[in-house]
Design brief:
The protein is of the alpha/beta class. The protein contains 17 helices and twelve strands. Helix 4 packs parallel to helix 14. The radius of gyration is 25 Å and the shape is globular. It starts with a helix and ends in an 8-residue tail after the last helix.
């Protein structure tokens, strides 16, 4: 390394250090305020849900309807206020990141952050309009009625399925909170973010070969690549101390240059596929979306106050950096993942660097749309989707972050939807399970369901999704409800109600129409 290069790296490192301080300080303050607001709002919303459940259980149809309307209004106001606060704080964070990018001389990062700032300003405008025109109030009321309808459906489903054994039925009802509050399927969930450690992965070789650009991955000035967002918009690089822990100070050009110059002999680096704040956002979004269909994700890592904690990592080799998801089952079968084949009552989610797609589920046999079988093992489905567990394979999901994060944050709940029995078929763009029209001709933009975005404000799971998800849970994951070895309990009366859909149609068959509750709104 030449004298002038040393001077340039020193100047750049000093400037980037100031940028990191500005950005990290803003992030720490904003994230903490945001998480405090969310914690308080969640507590109030949980209280509203508990009161509504009590009223529906003891107040009859009229009392339940009134409780749903009142609870929906309260919940809608809280959600609207929270969204607007989030938007304002996101704008503040974006400004901090713009300043940090300028000081680090990170032009791609600057353009990315300016784009994010623009999107957040637009989001603030839309949410404000929705708040003052009643969109959030309608959304809150719809949410409460949807939740009550799903609870009634699940109660009947488990009673019909396990009613022949009162002891098992009681265990299931307690497990999903039908008798003791907190209704939902509690799914322990472990998240691991991919990490490459220079002690085992030749990062300098990957850098020289052009496979990665360490400067760009660290958000620093780079003369070798230019990508706005790219495949890895929120990566993190840390230098490693002698005791194997990450140094608290941010990595800079000087540290990376020394590592590259010595071809890995001087300095040790770790490259994370996602930074802490991005991981926390992914986990929180997944929890919020799955809660819409009464699935409660119990993550190993906290979803909030990310600034003050570390997240579970999964060390990978160079081969998994640009990973072909067709090998996901084989990857999960490795000892370090501890995923036995068959039913897994704990979800494993992997946050990856690069994939040939946004994400994938493993351990599921999926037949949908034109391939929907006439003898699907899950009775009563109404979505031309048939998913069964591959008992001889390991299961889990993998996904990657892409720009803009506010849109791709729905990839993880989408893959978890597959894990819990949902497909792409017959979903329009406002749905978490939507895919491109190329993959499913029934999915198109000209959908009346788009109107629901006015009160939902973001992609969501429908009541229909919730019912079909619970059909899968009861049919395929019964062991997770009863605490017993693999058992499939499917009564004859439910088997007789299999749904046979004609190819190319998303229409609900007549025999399934009886299960649909009367429309409230």
């Amino acid at each position: 390394m030449g004298f002038f290069s040393d001077i340039g790296n020193a100047v750049s490192s000093a400037a980037s250090a100031v940028g990191d301080v500005v950005e990290d300080t803003v992030d720490a303050v904003v994230d903490t305020v945001e998480d405090v607001v969310d914690t308080v709002a969640d507590a109030v919303e949980d209280g509203v849900d508990a009161a509504t459940d009590w009223a529906c259980e003891h107040g009859g149809a009229i009392g339940c309807g009134i409780a749903n309307v009142v609870g929906g209004i309260v919940g809608g106001v809280i959600k609207g206020a929270r969204d607007i606060v989030h938007d304002v704080l996101d704008i503040v964070r974006d400004v901090g990141e713009v300043v940090g990018s300028i000081l680090r001389l990170d032009l791609p990062g600057l353009l990315k952050n300016l784009g994010t700032l623009f999107l957040d300003v637009v989001d603030l405008f839309i949410d404000t309009v929705r708040f003052f025109t009643g969109g959030y109030l309608v959304g809150g009321i719809v949410r409460q009625f949807k939740r009550s309808s799903l609870r009634k459906f699940v109660e009947k489903l488990v009673d019909d399925t396990f009613g022949g054994d009162p002891d098992r039925l009681q265990r299931v009802r307690q497990a999903i909170g039908l008798d003791n509050g907190g209704f939902g399927f509690r799914l322990p969930a472990e998240h691991r973010v991919f990490v490459m450690d220079s002690s085992t992965v030749p990062l300098w070789q990957m850098h020289e070969a052009g496979t990665i650009d360490l400067y760009a991955l660290a958000g620093l000035l780079s003369f070798d690549s230019f990508s706005i967002g790219g495949s890895n918009p929120n990566t993190l690089i840390k230098s490693v101390a002698d005791d194997g822990t990450d140094n608290w100070w941010p990595v800079n050009r000087w540290i990376i240059s020394k590592y590259l110059e010595s071809r890995g002999r001087d300095k040790r680096l770790r490259v994370y596929a996602m930074n802490r704040r991005t991981v926390a956002q992914m986990l929180e979004t997944a929890s919020a979306k799955l809660e819409e269909i009464a699935v409660i994700l119990e993550w190993n890592d906290g979803e909030r106050f990310a600034w003050f904690k570390d997240y579970t990592r999964q060390d990978i080799t160079e081969a998994e950096y640009d990973f072909n998801t067709s090998g996901l089952e084989s990857l999960l079968a490795r000892p370090e993942y501890n995923r036995p084949a068959g039913i897994n009552c704990q979800l494993l989610a992997l946050g990856a660097f690069k994939l040939e797609r946004f994400g994938r589920v493993a351990g599921r046999n999926i037949r949908q749309c034109d391939d929907f079988p006439s003898d699907c093992a899950t009775p009563g489905r109404t979505d031309r989707c048939c998913i069964t567990i591959q008992r001889d394979s390991s299961s889990g999901v993998i996904y990657r972050n892409a720009y803009p994060t506010d849109l791709t944050q729905y990839v993880l709940p989408h893959e978890i939807g597959h894990y819990l029995g949902l497909c792409h078929c017959c979903h329009s763009p406002e749905s978490v399970m939507w895919t491109s029209p190329k993959k499913d001709p029934t999915a198109h933009w000209a959908s009346g369901g788009l109107v629901s975005l006015y009160w939902e404000s973001e992609p969501h799971f429908s009541l229909k999704d919730g019912k079909n998800c619970w059909r899968f849970i009861v049919a395929e994951l019964a062991a997770c409800l009863t605490g017993e070895p693999e058992v499939r309990a499917v009564p004859a009366e439910l088997m007789a109600r299999r749904v046979l859909s004609s190819p190319g149609s998303c229409a609900v068959p007549a025999q399934a129409e009886k299960e649909r509750p009367a429309k409230i709104l």
